[in-house]
């Protein structure tokens, strides 16, 4: 079993290229972000949490639907860009955080985990799932979006989604494929 990728892995990537996955320029990413926003079941959310915000492109779009949005990433280099990109949005705050070993205080109506879960080992994904459930208000949504083609990450996108879709305490609202990615929406039960 592969261990979770460390924060230094991402810092090395961002040192080589400030937008290594072309989040700001890729048509694929733009379409995926639009599908993510379209999958949200509410027009507006009180408090939201974005795990792995990277350079803040999706963050900016999510912010239009949230009264307050906490966006976190393990890489300070990515967070610098995200903070600058969203500096004009007072409802957005940023923090350096390594999920699942660290988590914010309070609860949320929405948690977005886009392109993050497969960087974790299975034990860490299990902890992340428990953390997300504990952080979500009843009826709150967990949105998952992951690339599903071959990678060298600890898990595949499908393994990440299949595991989380089977977790107790969530009901599946949507589970769809969008070409090279999978998008799932889970609602916290109880």
TrEMBL record:
InterPro entries: SAM-dependent_MTases_sf (IPR029063), SAM-MeTfrase_NodS-like (IPR008715). GO terms for biological process: methylation; oligosaccharide biosynthetic process. Keywords: Methyltransferase, S-adenosyl-L-methionine, Transferase. Pfam families: NodS. The keyword Methyltransferase applies. GO terms for molecular function: S-adenosylmethionine-dependent methyltransferase activity. PANTHER family: METHYLTRANSFERASE, UBIQUINONE BIOSYNTHESIS O-METHYLTRANSFERASE, MITOCHONDRIAL. This is Methyltransferase.
């Amino acid at each position: 079993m592969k261990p979770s990728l460390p924060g230094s892995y991402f810092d090395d990537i961002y040192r080589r290229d400030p937008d290594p996955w072309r989040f700001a320029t890729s048509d694929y990413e733009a379409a995926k972000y639009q599908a993510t926003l379209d999958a949200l079941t509410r027009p507006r959310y009180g408090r939201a949490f974005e795990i792995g915000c990277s350079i803040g492109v999706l963050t900016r779009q999510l912010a239009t639907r949230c009264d307050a949005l906490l966006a976190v990433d393990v890489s300070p280099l990515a967070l610098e860009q995200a903070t600058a990109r969203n500096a004009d949005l007072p409802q957005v705050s940023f923090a350096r955080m390594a999920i699942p070993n660290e988590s914010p205080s309070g609860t949320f109506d929405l948690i977005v985990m886009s392109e993050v879960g497969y960087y974790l080992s299975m034990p860490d994904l299990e902890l992340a799932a428990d953390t997300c459930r504990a952080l979500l208000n009843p009826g709150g949504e967990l949105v998952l979006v992951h690339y599903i083609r071959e990678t060298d990450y600890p898990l595949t996108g499908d393994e990440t989604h299949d595991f989380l879709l089977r977790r107790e305490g969530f009901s599946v609202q949507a589970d769809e494929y969008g070409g090279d990615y999978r998008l799932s929406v889970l609602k916290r039960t109880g």
